[in-house]
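Late entry, written up from scratch paper. The run itself happened at the end of the previous shift, but nothing got recorded in the book at the time, so transcribing now.
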Amino acid sequence: MTSMAQSPPVATAFREHRRMLWGLAYRMTGSAADADDVVQETFARAVERPPARTDEPLRPWLVQVAVNVARDALRRRKRRGYVGPWLPSPVEGVDDLAGPPAGATDARYELRESASYAFLVALEALAPRQRAVLLLRDVLDYSVREAAEALGLSEPNVKTMHHRARRVMASYDATRRPSMAELAAETRSALERFLGAIMSQDAAAAQACLADGARLVSDGGGEFRAALRPVLGPDRITRFFLGLTRKIGVPARFEVRTLNGLPALVMEYDRPHDRWARRFVVRCDVDSRGAIHAVHVLSASAKLARVA
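Output as recorded:
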């Protein structure tokens, strides 16, 4: 094995770009644990099989290795069985998940938006290659040629995949809220109003916080009790939460935290209740009127590993 001392340019470049590579791998897989593995594998390849020419910028080569390792990890994850709906793992702090190169201003999706939960959920509809193409073209601002070289594809294939990926993302693009500061304030307000209504058992007030087509997805990973199918509509979502509070009571501790750039509620119970989790994250997405149109409840331990 080539040691780090024998390939200082590669090791130095890896340390410089490690956080960027993790952010790319996280966006590719939607999993913090998979992103850790991708970065570790990228480092191993950089040390064992560095590029022939180290006099050229190493960032493009590292991105090429990381995105292809991440694409394989995404394929494996999608082949594995999963109990109930799968949701991305939330993370604290996205501002330093370096994205586009310094000075790149033409990327379709801004850095914080591309690590937002709504964006990651939308990416799940893409095939692994489409996801890679979209991230390279619309987040890292790669040219068609650069994306083709990174993925080992022809330029016409990249153009076709990019067109199809954007078509799949059309519903996200139609409702996207790129002003994250404004969105954060609206999200916190909606989340606090909805959960306040639930805690006070006010069904009418809770339903008033939800959009007509609201959708709840719960991810317990087969480890804890959770809804195995999406819960649709204000009435059913409200009944889901009211039933939850009746079964497991009021949390011993709860706090609004910033996860993936937006406020979310972290709740903890002192003792488990018949396969109910001791820890939950509840987050939501709001529409242009401030009404909640998506609610995500996460309790699987692996998903909450990056939430302190």
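The mean pLDDT is 89.
(Scratch paper discarded after transcription.)
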